[in-house]
Design brief:
The complex is a heterodimer.
Chain A: H1 10-19, H2 33-39, H3 49-85, E1 88-89, E2 92-93, H4 99-128, H5 133-145, H6 149-169, H7 180-217, H8 221-237, H9 242-256, H10 261-283, H11 290-304, H12 312-317, H13 319-339, E3 343-344, E4 357-358, H14 360-395
Antiparallel strand pairs in A: 1-2, 3-4
Chain B: E1 2-8, H1 15-29, E2 33-40, E3 43-45, H2 50-55, E4 58-63, E5 77-81, H3 83-88, H4 90-98
Parallel strand pairs in B: 1-2, 1-4, 4-5
Antiparallel strand pairs in B: 2-3
Classes of the chains: A mainly alpha, B alpha/beta.
């Protein structure tokens, strides 16, 4: 909806697809749905001060997330690679006789350790500029130390940013002003944030995180299916917009917490919209225009590299029929992946992440079935409703 | 009109460049001279030179995140819009220049 409301002509969309088949991280990460929905309306910056501050909050969170995602990618991929290659003792990777693999795994672990300080630091940087970095990094570091995870890091980043912003506005004599940014602000703000994280807010959040991950681990089959359906629907719904980002960053953040299934379900759902639309154009050429067929080929390439945006040209042209079909396909794929115990160690989706996926056969099956469901349902819908649509054109 | 622009989205692999392309194309169609700097996952590309910023009459930021080196634009009138607007409706971005 938000992303698709008033897109330019389909030709434009198609051209974009072609020139932007990069490999890389799929759909934009992070952001909170509520904030996203509030602030994306019509693309205009909200005038209302409440909405304006929500919009700013979203911008700060996304800035932090954009710096943190590559750290998750590095950690997830290196640890997964080392674990996969290491000899197994009792089904668990054993590094005692594989020092080189241990080294690779340690590098990945270092990247994971740094992800929280980077997330918190750049949230604070977005709010308060350079002076926000130090308390943000320190707060994020402690969030890792007390196991408060990414929630703790987000909180540390926000607190740091607003605290520094506050200190900056304090009236100080002009003799003190030069040493504010280099001595006073780093020391005072980091002291306050560090103590807050260690002694006050850290452990309640750590407690919340452990309850949440215990709940995730103990999910009954029924609840797992519901979770997978919600994730799949969110991924497909706006193809890279704020709702997609929320599900994606939840999956990516859980990689660091050691739960790969959330990202596994997301990864399967991420690629079926463009793959499904591409397959649909191949299956029944007669109901798709020349332009759409070309967009379909681009969609296949984007689907294989895990870029949900490949379905946007189709959804922009015909949202009422396309969006329900890609949601159905993505939900199918994520449910199969979740039930089959697919785990994804990289914050990215589609067949391209296959080397770092657990249970590859199930993963591929989830993608294939989701793709076929998408393609068949859109072709059916299009065939059924084509005649009335043509009649209307004639009347018009 | 001489315009400088910066685009930046959170992931920095697709929308950043789509917005840049739309701004360039629309500016050309409207007879403006524009240079667009992208701040994507690869960092700053097509970086704006100091004299280009000095000569420009206005800056367009199509950004969803805080940009790098914002201080360069201190002297310049800045129009800030969400990345989506530059992609979906670039003409409306340029309409704001007149306002």
């Amino acid at each position: 909806m938000i992303e698709l409301g008033h897109c330019q002509s389909r030709g434009d969309g198609r051209r974009f697809c072609r020139s932007h088949v990069y490999t890389g991280v799929v759909s934009d990460p992070g952001g909170l749905t509520m904030l996203g929905v509030f602030t994306m309306r019509g693309g205009h910056l909200p005038e209302n001060p409440m909405l304006q501050s929500l919009h700013n909050l979203r911008k700060h969170l996304l800035t932090g997330v954009s710096f943190a995602i590559p750290f998750i990618a590095c950690g997830g991929i290196l640890i997964a690679a080392a674990t996969a290659l290491a000899p197994k003792t009792g089904g668990v990777a054993d590094f005692t006789h594989a020092p080189k693999l241990k080294l690779i795994s340690d590098v990945g672990a270092a990247s994971f350790t740094l992800m929280l300080p980077v997330l918190a630091g750049y949230i604070a940087y977005s709010i308060a500029g350079k002076p926000g970095l130090v308390p943000g990094f320190v707060g994020g570091f402690f969030s890792g130390q007390v196991n408060a995870g990414y929630l703790g890091a987000i909180l540390a980043g926000l607190l740091s940013g607003y605290l520094v912003q506050l200190i900056k506005t304090l009236p100080v004599s002009k003799h003190v002003r030069p040493i504010m940014p280099i001595l006073i602000i780093p020391a005072v703000s980091s002291g306050v944030i560090g103590i807050l994280m260690l002694k006050v807010v850290g452990s309640p959040i750590a407690h919340m995180m452990s309850i949440a991950s215990a709940a995730l681990r103990g999910l009954s089959t029924g609840n797992a299916v519901i979770l997978a359906m919600v994730l799949g629907a969110m991924i497909a719904f706006d193809m890279g917009g704020p709702i997609n980002k929320t599900a994606f960053f939840f999956g990516a953040a859980m990689i660091r917490e050691g739960d790969y299934r959330i990202m596994g379900a997301c990864a399967a759902a991420i690629c079926t919209p463009p793959l499904g639309m591409g397959l649909a154009t191949l299956l029944r050429r007669t109901i798709w225009s020349q332009e759409e067929q070309e967009a379909g080929v681009a969609g296949l390439a984007m689907g294989l590299t895990g870029i949900t945006e490949g379905a946007i040209p189709f959804a922009a042209a015909d949202p009422l029929r396309v969006i329900p079909c890609i949601i159905l396909g993505s939900m199918t794929a994520s449910v199969i992946a979740m039930l089959g115990g697919v785990g994804d160690h990289a914050p990215h989706g589609g067949p391209i992440v296959l080397p770092v996926v657990d249970r590859r056969i199930v993963y591929l099956a989830a993608i294939i079935v989701g793709t076929i469901v998408t393609a068949l349902s859109i072709n059916l819908l299009k065939t059924w409703s084509q005649k009335p649509a043509r009649d209307m054109e004639r009347v018009a | 009109m001489k315009i400088v622009a910066v685009t930046a989205c959170p992931t920095g692999i697709a929308h950043t460049y789509m917005a840049a392309e739309q701004l360039e194309k629309t500016a050309k169609a409207l007879g403006h001279e524009i240079k667009v700097e992208t701040q994507g996952a690869m960092g700053i590309e097509n970086e704006l030179e100091e004299n280009e910023i000095r000569q420009a009459q206005v800056a367009i930021f199509a950004v969803d995140i805080e940009i790098e080196k914002r201080e360069r634009f201190r002297q310049l009138k800045v129009i800030q819009v969400p990345v989506q607007e530059a992609i979906k409706n670039p003409k409306s971005v340029f309409l704001r220049l007149q306002a």
